[in-house]
Amino acid sequence: MAPAAAPATQSSKLRVALDSALESFRSQDRYFKLQAALVAAWLAVSLATVVGVAWTSSSGDRLGADVRAEMAVGGPVLLITNNSSSRWTDVTYTLNDAYVYRQAALEAGDHLTVPVGRFRKGGSGGRRAPRDTEPKALTIACEEGQTRVVLGKGKGP
Question: What is the strand order of the sheet 75-82 is part of?
């Protein structure tokens, strides 16, 4: 009686299938190969775009901060929203890398309106920011992390 043939392994089955597919592709005409190349290029560009967007958005604002500068009757104000799912604690807001405003906490989903005149330079007894200060950038630092938001049309400080 002849010995039974060894069962084919998964890798050898895969290799046979790939060889068969490659041979089938080689036998196709030039027009089909050009179409396949175009589809492959489109898939590569799409994948690179998705990876690029995911890469840049993950390295950005981890706090989930939304900051807008608006002009009010008394001068510019900053509208700050905590869009994250966690509370910010021991929060320091730094306007234009010079003026500071502190807050104990900002709850998740809550917002804060701060007139530019409430920011101070040199601590709580320091000099207030002039009312005509143009908000260019706001840095938010808290126990949960830090982010910097560039405001307005300028490039920031």
Answer: 65-72, 75-82, 111-115
